[in-house]
From TrEMBL:
One of its GO terms (cellular component) is extracellular space. It comes from Oryzias latipes. Its EC number is 3.4.19.6. Residues 350-573 form the Peptidase M1 membrane alanine aminopeptidase domain. GO terms for molecular function: metalloaminopeptidase activity; pyroglutamyl-peptidase activity; zinc ion binding. This is Thyrotropin-releasing hormone-degrading ectoenzyme. The active site is at 423 (proton acceptor). Residues 119-313 form the Aminopeptidase N-like N-terminal domain.
Length: 1006
């Protein structure tokens, strides 16, 4: 899924289920620990029985119960031996309890499905009524009984269930009139809304190894709320049109039909859709048969049966879109469906083109064919996420898939590309092999996010995404979050349906990706690829947990004679929150020159108070280089397992610096003694190229964050970026600008702000003037695919820094562009910098410009342009206009629903709007929470965005008050916001003075 929020957990349920229902081809016999334990107790019991009769009796009673329990489950047919590891078996058994008292246990009261039945196939027939936005359905589920039970418990939410029947199939799943078959009498059936479940209680028990068929019919509404089977509208030739589409991940399939809505319950699906013939319908598989009714003229489309899959990536859509198509060399048909006007303008062609190349790329990389005969990409006007990877029918919000080459910037193109790369990766990681349970959602999201960079490098090798942009956009970004004490481990336990959205957070996506990248680098690409191939082949059409992955990767390493226990190493990183700061220093006890370094690891945390009682430790793959003004020598990998270690490396003297985490492949920060920082800074000033571009960006990010957390004096990062005039690469500039904007928001309301902005402008000026502005002559923007990405991005970065920190020439240029646009009514602003120019224009020019941009926002049809026009409106320093914008966003449908949050956040980034956004957010919380509450990611984005730059004692107090009065049920976003704002206030209290003091009188290098 293209974006979301999550914490760790012992993989109890997940792990067991995986083994339980792995495909029968993957037989992994295991003795379960629990059984062994029980047998030991038995033996012990009998031994004791010799001693005393009373004890014998007591023990016998206890053991007989245990024995029955054990024997019962063991004897359950259909288990085929490997029924799960001891851990999970235990927890499952405890939950369902013994058969005898199931009635009293009431399995529907447990948040997880009981596991006595397993769906094998669904026949699903849906009639869609677009005129009144309702649908009715019939589902027939073929069930295999694993443990005897009287209850069928499955998921259903907001469905009006009317008829229910259950039949037992004859031996071998034959029709019910065969021996042993027949109608099962239903005792009662009822919904259990607390767990979004539906219960069918039978008079008689269903028997293990037998097959049953559950038939249900139901009705429901096609809601206007982006979940389940929902509708949205768009206009075509000034006419309002509707479409209806599904979003089932993670737990909304149950809103469309009764089903076993947990990822482990894989089954095959045969879907039939019936609807008005003015619409077309799509689903995961191609249409197998289509017919028109003589009676009402309605069309019935029967889709081909799917392979085994989970409910959350089943999908269908009813719309009147058109498409363009292409075919891969291996015969897979790819179609892009969108509004007819978007299709005819060619806005879908780019995504179609890269999707074709990507299917080939992944087939080569994973050495596993794409599994379905076709892949449709559907561009919808409204969607709760950037995109959703439904197998064979992936759904994208228009802004993440439609590209108008004339007006789209390269960053828009890059973002769109990455979303497509991400969703296509999921066709393997997620759809073909699915995490056992949501606690390991990072197994699919971390991979898809990592492959965004690898796959984009395949499409555009010059972009160098995995070695460069990954650092700033993933690694640096997530270390900000994961350095908070309110963070959580990447694997986080969830049970209740309402908590599941929580696991889709940046920790799962970005930390997942960063850990996978670290591992890929430790293993080396060929072995990493080999391990992945083995993992996918072993678990295809099935589920897997993280231990399954670790074991395949370990096997790949062993095959080359490298003895690393990947599971043991990775558990430290996935089951513990946070990450370490590694401090490297030359060994002080020795005479110079020395060969020894001392390495120390500590849990990195922004809050100094939180660092007391730290006990976490990691297995760290550390690479170290030693260098001086003329040469650098990269050392081998050093594994750090202890808190403090000493290692021997190459010879060092007083002028030799140490550099850790080469190319920032590791997920940790590196600190040094002050003398070493000084040597590194000197190196950057005199000859930065000796240090790799990734490490230059890393030094900038580490130093700013170490200073922000109080591990380093405030002057160190400021002195370090003094080398920027020498910097010719995009990435270090990007790393610096991210850190500087962060500081900017902390400082923009302080009296001495000019000291800071002048310092930044001083670093930026020479490179900015040298790079200039992009030209916009004919031809230069014609093909952005060919543009030199690095140069364009650096130019853009410098213009943005210059304009936002107040470079006069930059301001004049932006104003000139806007004036030209207004007077000529021709937009000659290069697409790549339009957002900067619009925003600068709106902030500097009068109200007429705001109105002009507002008008353009309404008149443009290009989605990328619409988005930046809207954001530009938030740049005004006129609070009246900002207020008007906020009100219009929320209370009218002038602003697309998913963009409302961005409007509020952007107003909050504007120093003139900060109070306004903060006040507005609190006043409208009830409305916002009602609208975005269920898609928790949106809510947490909003909370984070509105609060992250609050930094006064007063604002902190207001935030605390807000949390107390209204913050119930907003998930982890509010505690996190509180910690961030506390950190901001603390920084002002402890470090601001030192920061400004350095700026007033920076010491010279030397
Ligand atoms: Zn995803």
């Amino acid at each position: 899924m293209g974006l979301n929020d999550s914490s760790p957990g012992a993989m109890r349920n997940g792990r067991g289920l995986s083994d339980q229902w792995a495909d029968s081809v993957v037989v992994r016999p295991r003795t379960t620990e629990r059984h062994i334990t029980v047998h030991k107790r038995l033996v012990l019991g009998f031994a004791l029985s010799i001693v005393t009769l009373i004890i014998v009796t007591a023990v016998a009673v206890v053991l007989s119960i245990r024995f029955e329990d054990c024997g019962d489950r063991r004897g359950a047919p259909g288990e085929a031996g490997p029924r799960g590891s001891g851990r999970s078996n235990g927890s499952r058994g405890d939950r369902t309890g013994d058969r005898g008292d199931e009635e009293s246990v009431q399995p529907w009261r447990n948040p997880r499905l009981p596991g006595s039945l397993r769906p094998r196939h669904y026949d699903l027939r849906i009639s869609v009524y677009m005129d009144n936005f309702t649908f009715s359905g019939e589902v027939s589920v073929e069930l295999e009984c694993l443990n005897a039970t009287r209850f069928i418990v499955l998921h259903a939410d907001r469905l009006e269930v009317d008829r229910v029947s259950v039949t037992a199939e004859g031996a071998g799943g034959r029709p019910a009139n065969r021996p042993g078959g027949g109608v099962m009498r239903i005792h009662r059936h009822f919904p259990f809304p607390a767990n979004q479940m539906y219960v069918v209680a039978l008079h008689r028990e269903m028997k293990p190894m037998r097959v049953y068929r559950l038939n249900m019919s139901f009705d429901a509404a096609i809601e206007d709320e982006l979940l389940g089977f929902f509708r949205s509208a768009y206009s075509l030739h000034r006419e309002r049109r509707f479409l209806a589409v599904t979003q089932f991940s993670p737990i909304h399939a149950r809103k469309a039909f009764p089903c076993f809505d947990e990822p482990i319950y894989k089954a095959t699906f045969s879907l039939t859709l019936r609807h008005d013939p003015q619409y077309i319908s799509l689903s995961n598989m191609p249409v197998e048969a289509s017919s028109l009714s003589d009676e009402d003229g309605w069309v019935t489309n029967r889709f081909a049966r799917t392979p085994r899959m989970s409910t959350y990536y089943l999908a269908w859509a009813v719309c009147n879109f058109t498409y363009r198509e292409t075919q891969t060399d291996s015969g897979v048909t790819i179609r892009l469906y969108a509004r007819p006007d978007a299709i005819s303008s060619g806005a879908g062609d780019y995504a179609l083109h890269i999707t074709k190349r990507l299917l080939g790329f992944y087939e080569d990389y994973f050495k596993v064919q794409y599994s379905l005969p076709k892949l449709d990409l559907l561009a919808v006007p409204k969607h709760p996420y950037a995109a959703m990877e439904n197998w064979g029918l992936s759904v994208f919000v228009e802004q993440k898939i439609l590209l108008d080459a004339e007006v789209s910037s390269s960053s828009y193109q890059m973002e769109l590309t990455m979303v497509v790369v991400h969703e296509i990766c999921h066709q393997w990681f997620g759809d073909l092999v699915t995490p056992v349970w949501w606690e390991d959602v990072w197994l699919k999201e971390g991979f898809a996010h990592f492959f965004e960079y690898v796959g984009t490098d395949f499409l555009f090798p010059k972009w160098n995404m995995e070695k460069q942009r990954f650092l700033t956009d993933v690694l640096h970004e997530v270390m900000l979050l994961d350095g908070l004490s309110s963070s959580h481990p990447i694997s986080q336990e969830v049970e209740r349906a309402t908590d599941i959205d929580r696991v889709f957070d940046w920790i799962a996506y970005k930390k997942g990706a960063a850990l996978i990248r670290m591992l890929a680098n430790v293993m080396g690409q060929p072995l990493f690829q080999k391990g992945l191939n083995d993992y996918l082949l072993s678990h295809m059409y099935s589920n897997a947990a993280r231990d399954d992955l670790w074991s395949k990767l370990s096997q790949a390493m062993h095959s080359e004679g490298r003895d690393i226990n990947i599971g043991e190493m990775m558990d430290r990183w996935t089951l513990q929150m946070g990450y370490p700061v590694v401090t490297i220093s030359k060994n002080q006890s020795e005479q110079r020159p020395t060969h020894y370094i001392t390495i120390n690891q500590k849990h990195f945390l922004y809050g100094e108070e939180a660092r007391k009682n730290l006990s976490l430790q990691w297995q760290i793959p550390l690479t170290v280089a030693v260098g001086n003004q003329s040469s650098v020598c990269v050392e081998q990998l050093i594994w750090i397992n202890n808190r403090t270690e000493t290692h021997r490396i190459g010879q060092m003297d007083d002028d030799t610096w140490l550099l850790g985490n080469i190319n920032q492949t590791g997920y940790f920060r590196v600190n040094y003694d002050l003398q070493n920082w000084k040597l590194l800074i000197q190196q950057l000033h005199s000859n930065p190229q000796i240090i790799s571009v990734g490490n230059r960006a890393g030094l900038i990010d580490d130093s700013f964050n170490l200073a922000r957390a109080g591990y380093l004096p405030q002057g160190v990062p400021l002195q370090l970026i003094g080398y920027l005039p020498e910097e010719t690469s995009f990435l270090p500039w990007h790393s610096a600008s991210r850190a500087l904007y962060q500081l900017d928001k902390l400082l923009d309301r302080t009296d001495e702000y000019r000291l800071f902005s002048d310092y930044v402008l001083k670093q930026v000026a020479s490179r900015y003037h040298q790079m200039g502005w992009p030209s916009n002559g004919p031809g230069t923007e014609g093909n952005i695919l060919q543009a030199s990405y690095q140069t364009e991005e650096l130019q853009r970065e410098l213009i943005m820094l210059a304009c936002s920190f107040g470079n006069k020439q930059c301001h004049r240029q932006a104003v000139a562009y806007i004036s030209d646009w207004i007077s000529s009514n021709k937009n000659r602003i290069p697409p790549n910098i339009r957002d900067i120019v619009y925003c600068t224009g709106v902030s500097l020019m009068d109200e007429d410009v705001w109105e002009f941009i507002w008008m353009k926002f309404h008149s443009t049809n290009a989605v990328s342009e619409k988005k930046i026009l809207l954001e530009a409106l938030t740049c005004s320093d006129n609070t009246f206009l900002l207020n008007r914008l906020l009100n219009l966003s929320l209370s009218s449908d002038l602003v697309p629903e998913q963009d409302v949050i961005d409007v509020i956040i952007h107003v909050g980034r504007n120093p003139q709007g900060r109070n306004l956004a903060w006040k507005y957010f609190r006043e409208k919380w009830d409305i916002l929470n009602a609208r975005y509450g269920e898609a928790l990611f949106m809510n947490s984005k909003l909370i984070g965005g509105v609060t992250e730059f609050l930094n006064t004692e007063k604002e902190l107090y207001e935030l605390k008050e807000f949390i107390q009065s209204s913050g119930v049920g907003a998930g982890p976003a509010l505690p996190r916001a509180l910690e961030i704002v506390e950190g901001n206030v603390r920084w002002h209290r402890l470090h601001r003075r030192q920061f400004y003091q350095w700026l007033r009188k920076p010491p010279s290098l030397g």
